[in-house]
Amino acid sequence: MTSPLSHPTADGRWTPRLWGTLLVLCAAMFLDALDVSMVGVALPSIGADLDLSTSTLQWIVSGYILGYGGLLLLGGRTADLLGRRQVFLVALGVFALASLLGGLVDSGPLLIASRFIKGLSAAFTAPAGLSIITTTFPEGPLRNRALAIYTTCAATGFSMGLVLSGLLTEASWRLTMLLPAPIALIALVAGLKLLPRSTREKNHNGYDIPGAVLGTASMLLLVFTVVQAPEVGWASARTLLSFLAVAVLLTAFVRVERRSAGPLIRLGVLRSGNQVRAQLGALAFFGSYVGFQFLTTLYMQSLLGWSALHTALAFLPAGALVALSSTMVGPIVDRFGTQRLIAVGFALMVLGYALFLRVDLDPVYAAAVLPSMLLIGAACALVFPSLNIQATNGVEDHEQGMVSGLLNTSVQVGGAIFLAVVTAVVTAGAPDRPTPQAVLDSYRPGFMVVAGVAVAGLLITLTGLRGKRRAQQQSVVVAKSPVRETEQDRVPVRD
Fold first, then answer.
1. 404 vs 132, 155, 320, CA distance in Å?
2. How far apart are CA 186 and CA 403, in angstroms?
3. Could you tell me the CA-to-CA distances from 348 to 84, 373, 374 in Å, in that order?
4. Is 149 within 8 Å of 326 (Cβ atoms)?
5. Contacts of 432 (CB under 8 A, 6+ apart)
C-alpha cells in the first residue's frame, strides 16, 4: 500500500512528505547526470597519477556508460516486479559504496570496475525513480510539474558536473569520485523515511529470464561495440562481427518477447506513435547534445587554450537557463502539449548548432558562443521534460518502470552511438599538418553531423503534429450526423 501522505491532496497541493519524496528522487537523478559529466575534466590528472594510457582512460568513461546503458531495460522491469522503492534504495546504496571505492583505489582496473558498478546501479535507480514519480503523481498537470522539476535536476547535474569537476580537480581528482558518496548516503537515509512503500507486482506471469539475458546481452554488446568502433575501426572485422552478433541477439530477443507471457518489454507499447516518437526523439536529443559538448570542449581547451574551469563556465548559461525554468515548463506543457514543445525545442537546438559553426580561433564569447549556449539551454528546458511526459503518459502503473527503462536506454544508446559517429567523422578529417585552423576545419563536419541529428529529431516530431491535425479533422467529420445537416455543419472547420 502507498501512504496517502505520499499523494497530492484533493485540491492538488503537495504535502511536505511529497516534496521530500520528489527531492530524494531528484537527488539521485542529479547524481547520475553529475557523474556522467564530472569525470571528463579529471581524466588527464587521473592518467598522470595512476600512469594510465589513453585507451585505459577511455574506459573510465566507457565503463560507466556500458553498465548504465546495457542494464537499463533490466533495471526498469525489475522495479516493476520487485518493488520500485526496494530497487531504488538498494541501487542507491550500491552507488554510494562504489563512489567511495572509486575515490580510494590506486589502480586503473579497480577504478574502471568501480565506474562500471556505478553505471550498473544507476541503471536501476533511474527507471525506478522515474516510475515512482509517474505512479505517485496522477497523469496531467501535477505529473507534468513533477517531471519538469525532476528532469531539470538531471540537466542541472550534467551542467554542474562540468563546473564542479573544474574546481575539484584543482585540488585532487579523487574528490570528483568521492563527492557523490555523501550526497547519495544522505538521499538514501531520507529515502528510507520518505519514499512511499510499493508492493511487488503479484499478477505477473513469471520472470522473463531468457528475455532478460538476451536483452541485457544485446544492449551491453551494442554499447561496447559503438564505444570501441572509433578505436578499432568501423569497417574492421571485429566491429562488423560485433554488430552482426548484436543483430542476432536482438532478433532472438524480439522472438522471445513476442512469445513470453511476462515479457521484459511488452512490444505492443511500441505500437503507439507518441511512444515511438518519444524514444527516437530521446536518441536524437541526447546524441546531438553529447556530440556538441565533446567537440566544443575540444575546441575551447585544445584550440583556444582555455582552462577546464573556463570551459565549464562557458557552458554554465545553458545549465542556468534549464535550472531557472524548472517550475515553468509544467504549465507550458499543460497548455501547448508535448509535441509542440519538443518541435520548438529541436528547432532552437538546430539554430544554436548552426550559429556555432561561425566560431573562429579568436571568438568573442558574447557574440559567438553565448547565443548558441542560450538557445541550446532553452531547447533542453523544453525537450527533456516533454519527452519524459510523452513517454509515460497513457501507460499503466505496472508498466511504468518498463517504459522508464526503455526511455533511459534510448538516451544512453543515442549518446553512445552519435558520440562515436562524431568522433569517427572528426578523426577521418584530421589534417596531416595539424595547424590550429586546419584542426578547427576538421571539427566543422562533426558539428554538421550534430546539427543533422537535431534536424532528424525535429522531422520525427513534426510527423506527430501532422498526424494529430489529421486525426482532429477526421474526428470532426465522424462527429457530423449523416442524416440531418444543420447550418452549423456547413461552416468550414478551422484548425
1. 10, 17, 26
2. 28
3. 36, 11, 9
4. yes
5. none
Rounded to the nearest 10 degrees, the angle between the axes of helix 370-392 and helix 108-136 is: 60
282 vs 25: CA distance, rounded Å: 21
Predicted local distance difference test score (pLDDT) of residue 200: 61
Question: Would you say residue 311 has pLDDT above 60?
Answer: yes
Angstrom distance (rounded) from CA 112 to CA 96: 16
Domain locations along the chain: 4-199+262-474, 207-261
* Predicted TM-score (pTM) of this structure: 0.79
**120 vs 69: CA distance, rounded Å:** 8
> Are the beta carbons of 474 and 322 closer than 8 angstroms?
no
> How far apart (Å, rounded) are the C-alpha atoms in residues 8 and 193?
18
Distance (Å, rounded) from C-alpha 354 to C-alpha 452?
A: 10
Q: What are the backbone dihedrals phi and psi of residue 181, each rounded to the nearest 5 degrees, phi first?
A: -60, -55
Q: Return the pLDDT at 206.
A: 58
Confidence class for position 69, pLDDT limits 50, 70, 90:
confident
Give kind and range of the element (H or E) at residue 222. helix 209-232
Q: Per-residue pLDDT tens for 95-123?
A: 999 999 999 999 899 999 999 999 899 98
Instruction: Please say if the pLDDT value at position 429 is more than 80.
Output: yes
Q: CATH class for domain 4-199+262-474?
A: mainly alpha
CB 460 within 8 A of CB 277: yes
pLDDT for position 490: 39
Which are the contacts of 435, defined by CB distance < 8 A and separation ≥ 6?
none
